[in-house]
Amino acid sequence: MRVLVVGSGGREHALVEALAQSPLAEEIFAAPGNPGMGGLAELVDIPADDLIALRNFARVAGIDLTVVGPEMPLVSGIAEAFWEEGLKVFGPSRAAARIEGSKVFAKEVMRHAGVPAAHSEAFDRQAAALAYLRSLPPDGYPVVVKVDGLAAGKGVMVAGSYEEAEEAVHAAFAGAFGAAGERLIVEEYLTGREASVFALTDGRNILPFVPAQDYKRIYDGDEGPNTGGMGAYSPTMWMDAVTYATILEEIITPTVHQLALIGARYTGLLYAGVMVTPEGPKALEFNCRFGDPETQALLPRMETDLLELMAACAEESLGGREISWSPERAVCVVLASEGYPESSSEGDKILGLDEVAGMAGVRVYHAATRLEEDGSFYTSGGRVLNVVGTGDSIMEARARAYAAVELIDFPGMQYRTDIALEALEMEDL
Ligand code: AMP
Ligand code: GLY
Predict the structure, then answer these.
(1) Both 174 and 87 in a single domain?
(2) Which end of the chain, N or C, is less packed with Cβ atoms under 10 Å?
(3) What is the DSSP string of 358-378?
(4) In the chain, pLDDT over 90 holds for what percent of residues?
């Protein structure tokens, strides 16, 4: 098969690596890809949001399957654009991608499907949102204010008081998030432990992944602002089998069925962000694509042929399959550039990549790098590199990841030192 991967981050680098291992893969292209993929994929200079250019390329290059990494092209309708021309895509339709593209829509799906989730109210006018917030008793706080549309992980504000919530609502309606903030939801604040659960689906059959743990805040100890994700590990040994089965049964399965019921075609990966609360697991959000960086801590453990599974999704023949996972542990540490997540710096020379290249149980996925004529890699965005350690224990996987991180350096480099630390403590028990 000739495969096109759309996207340019660490997630796409991990996807390309996994797909390249498939005996079915003849040639892999990545648009636009990144220079870390060199050797695994041929880079095609088309941005991930240029749907027509991507479709033309897929047709001319005889692509058998296009795998879409980021949400933006899915929400814009890349699947329909390809289907119109008879091209196969791993990714949901525009109608189904609204599960990520609109929080109001996602909440409606959850309500109709009976998915356990935080209570929420939707507003498209500031006055109504503020009146609702004023009507809440003081112990009704904190609340969570979420803008409706895509906001790169920045559209969720936890407000501890009416004043903070008011500020968040003002910011959204004043255009701080563009059109994404024209509607918003105010939601009950949930407490518990968070996990990311992915499932492949062809719209009918569902094939779940093992869960992964993401770290969203920028600083150690879950301090500071939310980011796209600063690290991840798998498996989540704190989650028991009953909780996992409940997530599949009460969150993932009814959501897939509800989307099918409303005619929203889904042939791709559904990502549920789940809070395991004292009353059981509740859905926080859905994404219409693989998570970044959870994917980087999951795919190195996958023993089943990913390309075969993705092709089965696209051909609506996923039934009767299983995924086999290596018993190894995987820990992914994100190296971010100065200023991230508010801004990011570019053009800083990255040192140490050669030293870590041969280390046992270490993979480095590129997320925002540029290869210059001097043969060196330079930073080109917020999340720069993903360093993944694998091993027989979290201790070993973590030690390998952080040993590699210690050897890599660029000016202003920031990373969390506590990725999978809690899992290490659980392993000691
Ligand atoms: P979302 O994009 O909806 O997943 O929100 C981003 C992050 O905000 C989540 O990963 C949670 O850490 C936090 N969050 C979202 N919704 C809630 C909620 N209802 N209660 C508590 N935390 C939340
Ligand atoms: N790691 C969170 C996300 O991919 O949305």
Answers:
(1) no
(2) C
(3) T-TTEEEEESSEEE-TTS-EE
(4) 91
